[in-house]
């Protein structure tokens, strides 16, 4: 299976299982939340997609490669089992920390329940890279890591987000999933410059791009994955594509699921930006 | 421990544990963080956690109605997420029943019934529910069903988040 080209994809959710087969041939691949599926009992619609040759990429949320501790082997094995069950060309996760405490601090373990930013320091860079190398040794296919959306920033950081991602990719050879909606979220909520981040990311490291909708209320951007993709996020995709066309783009929709026709139109709008003629006004 | 990064890991672990304690366990704001942004992150994690509970147990939002967000916030503030949302929902209800809120006896009765059902369901796996457990679950399940039927008769805002 080719790993260099994915094309236009959509996040597979049980609520979209009926719509997805009808979206072909405009849909080239899907991504599935790794923790949501049992590799020994794959959902029938996913099996059918695989039978038709549609690539399925497992996307993990709970590995915590940005945790201070070494990655948990059971969680790595679980991700590897999903990659094998789906015959996936690659797997993806997040550059984030998701739990803390435990033996390193001698305090009780705590789960964040979501993705939290890693401090962009030299210390954290060393730890993250060591964790990624361990994961790479363990996983049967290439690994790609996604930039996250955050509400807060660590004090005394030594790298910009783009420089940190570039360092991680250079040191470990890990691929990157660039989420342009997360870049927009961090722009609105934290004042980060998304164009600068894109300029700092090595284009050849990009495995694919995530794009999703959200909504702004009282000056805060909520990355809801429940709204259509708005113009500023499409603009960031265009900015990224102007530098280098990514091997794949994946649209994420997690709630308020629209009808297949509406999703098809949104996929077409994203594809138009990819082709360089996404002229929304 | 032969890990050459052990000390580096310990430093990072200390910083991450302090931040996470502030976010999910009522710990102090670590030095250098913007308290407002930390609060925004704390609320985002809490909303995500409440969403998880509503996803696996939508009936709790129905039973507690508009009180759900406040009660869940009070429960979660100093109790870090330990396992998945099912366990969280069960712990939340256990906390409500122990602390005596809400006071409304009808709601407390429904919460106790819900707890009985969920304990049986969670206790039944991996070996499927034996007949005895199923028998003891039925009255509670029936009461919850009747409660939903009564809500449908008098509709109002159901979602608690």
Fold and architecture overview:
Chain A has a single domain, classed as Divalent-metal-dependent TIM barrel enzymes (TIM Barrel, Alpha-Beta Barrel). Chain A is 36% helix and 22% strand. Chain A has helices at 19-23, 44-51, 73-85, 122-138, 161-172, 180-190, 194-200, 231-243, 260-274, and strands spanning 7-12, 29-33, 56-59, 91-94, 97-102, 107-116, 143-146, 175-179, 206-212, 215-217, 220-222, 248-252. Chain A has an 8-stranded parallel beta sheet. In chain A, strands 5-6 form a two-stranded antiparallel ribbon. A two-stranded antiparallel sheet of chain A has the order 10-11. In chain A, helix 4 (122-138) packs across helix 5 and helix 6 crosses helix 8. The model of chain A has no long low-confidence stretch (mean pLDDT 94). Chain B is elongated, with a radius of gyration of 20 Å. Chain B has a domain at 54-153. Chain B is mostly helical. Chain A binds chain B through residues 67-70, 97, 99-102, 104-105, 107-114, 116, 119, 123-124, 126-127, 130, 150-156, 189-190, 220, and chain B through 3, 5, 8-17, 19-21, 23-25, 31-34, 37-38, 40-41, 44-45, 48-49, 52, 80-83.
Note the topology.
The complex is a heterodimer of chains A (281) and B (161).
Chain A: E1 7-12, H1 19-23, E2 29-33, H2 44-51, E3 56-59, H3 73-85, E4 91-94, E5 97-102, E6 107-116, H4 122-138, E7 143-146, H5 161-172, E8 175-179, H6 180-190, H7 194-200, E9 206-212, E10 215-217, E11 220-222, H8 231-243, E12 248-252, H9 260-274
Helix pairs in contact in A: 4-5, 5-7, 6-8, 7-8
Chain B: H1 6-24, H2 35-56, H3 58-64, H4 68-76, H5 85-99, H6 105-124, H7 131-153
Helix pairs in contact in B: 2-3, 2-5, 5-6, 6-7
């Amino acid at each position: 299976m080719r790993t260099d080209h994915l094309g236009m994809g959509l996040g597979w959710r049980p609520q979209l299982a009926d719509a997805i087969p009808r979206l072909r041939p405009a849909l080239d691949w899907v991504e599935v939340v790794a923790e949501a599926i049992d590799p020994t009992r794959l959902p029938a619609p996913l099996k059918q997609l695989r039978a038709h040759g549609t690539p399925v990429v497992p996307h993990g949320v709970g590995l915590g490669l940005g945790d201070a501790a070494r990655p948990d082997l059971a969680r790595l094995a679980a991700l590897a089992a999903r990659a094998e069950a789906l015959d996936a060309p690659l797997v993806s996760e997040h550059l984030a920390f998701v739990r803390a405490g435990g033996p390193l601090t001698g305090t009780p373990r705590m789960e964040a329940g979501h993705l939290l930013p890693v401090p962009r320091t030299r210390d954290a860079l060393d730890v993250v890279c060591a964790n990624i190398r361990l994961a790479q040794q363990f996983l049967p296919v290439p690994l790609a890591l996604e930039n996250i959306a955050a509400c807060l920033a660590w004090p005394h950081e030594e790298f910009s987000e783009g420089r940190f991602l570039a360092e991680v990719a250079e040191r470990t050879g890990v691929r990157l999933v660039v989420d342009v909606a997360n870049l927009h979220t961090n722009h609105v909520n934290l004042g980060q410059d998304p164009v600068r981040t894109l300029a700092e990311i090595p284009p050849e490291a990009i495995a694919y791009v995530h794009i999703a909708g959200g909504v702004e209320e009282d000056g805060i951007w909520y990355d809801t994955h429940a709204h259509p993709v708005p113009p500023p996020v499409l603009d960031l995709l265009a900015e990224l594509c102007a530098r280098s066309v990514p091997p794949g783009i994946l649209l994420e929709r997690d709630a308020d699921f629209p009808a297949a026709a509406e999703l098809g139109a949104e996929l077409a709008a994203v594809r138009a930006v990819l082709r360089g003629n996404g002229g929304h006004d | 421990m032969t890990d050459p990064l052990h000390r580096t890991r310990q430093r990072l672990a200390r910083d991450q544990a302090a931040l996470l304690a502030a976010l999910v366990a009522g710990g102090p704001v670590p030095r250098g963080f913007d308290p407002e942004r930390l609060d925004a992150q704390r609320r985002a994690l809490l909303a995500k956690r409440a969403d998880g509970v509503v996803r696996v147990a939508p009936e709790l939002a129905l039973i507690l109605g508009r009180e759900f967000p406040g009660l869940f916030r009070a429960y979660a503030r100093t109790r870090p997420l330990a396992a998945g949302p099912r366990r969280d929902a069960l712990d939340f209800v256990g906390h409500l029943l122990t602390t005596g809120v809400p006071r409304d006896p009808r709601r407390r009765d429904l919460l106790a019934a819900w707890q009985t059902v969920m304990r049986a369901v969670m206790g039944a796996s991996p070996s499927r529910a034996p007949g005895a457990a199923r028998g003891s679950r039925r009255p509670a399940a029936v009461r919850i069903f009747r409660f939903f039927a009564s809500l449908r008769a008098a509709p109002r805002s159901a979602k608690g988040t």
